[in-house]
C-alpha cells in the first residue's frame, strides 16, 4: 500500500460526511460517480419526499394544495427556507421556481433598464451559453442592439477570468453585469465581494449565476449585497433531472414590479380573488410565474434536509480537501503524458467544487473511464471535469480514479474510441 493510498483510507475514516454516502443510489456498474456538477445522484430522502407528494395527491386530490405535511400552495416558500443557509440570504429574498433560463429572463427583464448612454450589459466570453442567449434576447426586446451593447470580458488564457480586468470594463455606459460564481469549464471561483463592491461604486447592478457553486461553496449573498442571483438544483443539490430552479433578489429591490408577471407571484391572500389587477407579494416570491411543478419540487426537500444536517461549511471543507488530494495524485500523471494541463486554479479561495484537466484526447479518455466504472464529465473542446460531491464521494474514490486514469494513459487504451463527444456530453 502506497502512502497516498493509506492517506485516502485515513481521510475516509476521519470524514464527518461519510454517513451520507449510503443515502444515495449509484449507477449500475459505475461505483465512482464524479459528474455531480452536471447531475447529482438520487438519494433515498429525495425519493421519499417525492413519494410523499404522490401520496398526498392520492390521498387529498385538490385539497393537497392546503392539506398534508407539505401543502403545495406554500411549498416554494418552505424550500426557499431550506436553501437560505446555503447562500446566506433571508428566505424572503429567495424564490423557488422555474429554471436558470426562465429566472434569468425574469430578473433581467426587471433589472435591466437601459437609459440614455447607460445601455450596455457586461458579461464574459466564457459564460454558459444560456446566459448569453437570455441577455441578447432581453436586449432585443428592449430595442437595444446586442452587437453594440453586450460587452464581454475576454479571458487572457481561454480558461479563467481576472477580477481586476472585469472591473476595468465597468465603464460608465454599463447598466448591468452578469457573471458566473464558478466558471463551468475551469472551476474557477470568482471573488463575488470584490466584484459587487466595484460594481456598486459605479452605480451598476450586478448578479451571478450560481449553477456551479450552490451546494458546494458557501455564499453570503445578502451581506455581499449583490443585486440578484440564479441557480439550478439538479447538480450538487441533487434534486433530479430538470429539477426546479431558484432565484435571489436582494431585499433592497423588493417592491419592484416584476418584468414578467404571473399569478403565482401574487400576494397569497389575494391570489384566489381572481382579480385582473396584479397584487404582487412583497418579497422575492413576487417573481414566481405559473403554478409550480410539485412533483419536480418534491425531491429537493429530501435532499436539502441532508444539507441542513451536514452544514455547508463542512461540505466546503471536504470539497476543498478532495479536489486538492485529486490534484496531488493527478500531478503524477504528467510524467506519463505531458499533454495534461490543470485549468482549475490551485488556490483554495479561487477553486469551486470540481477539478478540470485539459487533454487533446479528452473525449475518448472520458469514454474509456466510463467503461471502467468511473463517470467523469467532458466539455468541449478538450476538457475533463471531475466533481467529487462531498455527500457521496470518498477519498478512496479519488484514489481509485487516479489508478484507473493512470492505467488508461499507460496503455493508451483510449485510442480505441473516437475523439468526439456524444450527443450529450
Automatic annotation (TrEMBL):
Annotated Pfam families: KYNU_C
The keyword Ribosomal protein is assigned to this record: no
Domain of life, per lineage: Bacteria
EC number: 3.7.1.3
Cellular component terms (Gene Ontology): cytoplasm
Residues annotated as binding pyridoxal 5'-phosphate: 100-101, 128-131, 209, 212, 234, 263, 291
Catalyzed chemical reaction(s): 3-hydroxy-L-kynurenine + H2O = 3-hydroxyanthranilate + L-alanine + H(+); L-kynurenine + H2O = anthranilate + L-alanine + H(+)
InterPro entries recorded: Kynureninase, PyrdxlP-dep_Trfase, PyrdxlP-dep_Trfase_major, PyrdxlP-dep_Trfase_small
Modified residues (N6-(pyridoxal phosphate)lysine): 235
GO biological processes: anthranilate metabolic process; L-kynurenine catabolic process; L-tryptophan catabolic process to kynurenine; NAD+ biosynthetic process; quinolinate biosynthetic process
Cofactors required: pyridoxal 5'-phosphate
Pathway: Cofactor biosynthesis; NAD(+) biosynthesis; quinolinate from L-kynurenine: step 2/3; Amino-acid degradation; L-kynurenine degradation; L-alanine and anthranilate from L-kynurenine: step 1/1
Principal EC category: hydrolase
Keywords: Hydrolase, Pyridine nucleotide biosynthesis, Pyridoxal phosphate
Keyword GTP-binding carried by entry: no
Gene Ontology molecular-function annotations: kynureninase activity; pyridoxal phosphate binding
Primary role: Catalyzes the cleavage of L-kynurenine (L-Kyn) and L-3-hydroxykynurenine (L-3OHKyn) into anthranilic acid (AA) and 3-hydroxyanthranilic acid (3-OHAA), respectively.
Oligomer and partners: Homodimer.
Family: Belongs to the kynureninase family.
This protein's name: Kynureninase
Originating species: Salipaludibacillus keqinensis
Lineage: Bacteria, Bacillati, Bacillota, Bacilli, Bacillales
Gene: kynU
